[in-house]
Each structure stands twice: as C-alpha cells, then as structure tokens.
Amino acid sequence: MTGxxxxxxxxxxxxxxxxxxxAALVLLHGRGASAQSxxxxxxxxxxxxxxxxxxxxxxxxxxxxxxxRFVEPRxxxxxxxxxxxxxxxxxxxxxxxxxxxxxxxxxxxxxxxACLSLDAFARRGGRLGGVIAYAGGLIGDTLAPERYAAxxxxxxxxxxxxxxxxxxPTGRVEESAALLRTxxxxxxxxxxxxxxxxxxxxxxxxxxxxxxEVLDAGA
Length: 219
Description:
The chain has 219 residues and is α/β, with parallel strands linked by helices. α2 (80-97) packs across α3. It has helices spanning 39-45, 80-97, 112-124, 170-182, 201-216, and strands at residues 11-15, 23-28, 53-58, 105-110, 130-134, 156-163, 186-193. It starts with 10 loop residues before the first strand and ends with a helix.
C-alpha cells in the first residue's frame, strides 16, 4: 500500500469538455461500488437539460475511499482518507484550470461518497455551485469547526438521509448540517422515514433543481 492509494485511479469522464461546458458535475461513489455505477445518477440529475455539462466520476482504489466507518476517528481511515480528499481537490482544481469557475461546479455523492463530498467541500472552503449529499455526513468521531474552512460562502448544500439509515446516524446528519450552517453554507437537510439506505425521487428533484440554478445563472 502506498501513502496515496487513490492517486493513480481512473476517472470516468463524460459529457462536455470542461472548456466548453456551462457547468460540471463531480460525483463520488459509495463503498464497494464503482465510478460506472454512478453514471445513471448523473443522467437522472441532468434529465431534461441539454446544456453542455462536464461529468467527472473518480474511482476509489479497491472500491472504497477509506476502510472504516465514517464516524470512526479520522486516524483510523488514514492514509486513504487524506488521499481521497486530495483526489477530489485535484479534480476540482483541474476543472477550474480548464476555465470553469467554482460557482459552476456541483459536487455530490452517495453514502461514503456523500461523506467524502461534504468533507472535501468543507475543508476546501469558498463557493461551489452546490453540494449534494445523499446519505452522508461529515467525517470523524467528533466534529470540530477548526478542521474546516472559515467561510463556505453561501454554497447551497443538500443532505438527505433515511430515518433511520443503517449506515448514517441521524444525529450526525443533523450535527453536520448545523456545523456547515455556522460556517456559512446554505443547508437543506431532510430526513425520510422508512426509505433505508437509498435515494428517493424528492431527493433527485432537489438535486436537479440545484443543478438547474447553476445552469440558469447568468444565462
């Protein structure tokens, strides 16, 4: 094992070239899944839109971004967690270097990928077009504001989770939402009784609306 296990993994690239896109959608898969498994989610989130959107879905080494549960101490998930955060940062910076402003980038994921998307965004700071976290929360056994950027600049964030979800403690969803709000994000957190560990149609529609607002801004 190297100290940077996700550095050399492939990224599923679809949609428009970033230099010609009006927006970008970066999605992160869950534990035991693959980049290809999230292609249908990207299609669902972009349904009904014909603007050019760059899609990037990175693959985790061995199908997992980190080995332990997301509510374990962060050290228990190293070096995979830091490698995963660096992988996401690199993708975002590549899109910006290609000419997309951060306000045109939507970052999201499901389960482990949702946790990683929230943590990567909160550590990066500044404005993104939006963050969509389906069944996730910030990472670590405890949450401390000093770990994260001081200003999340009004970025829209959606966190949706089953109530209960067998993998995502309800309290962590609520705690994550509260912390992100104190750091300046505009957070919509919703709990759905009885859906388990999945994504429902309302959550998909909220994601579509977030992406639509990015695409429509300045049109």
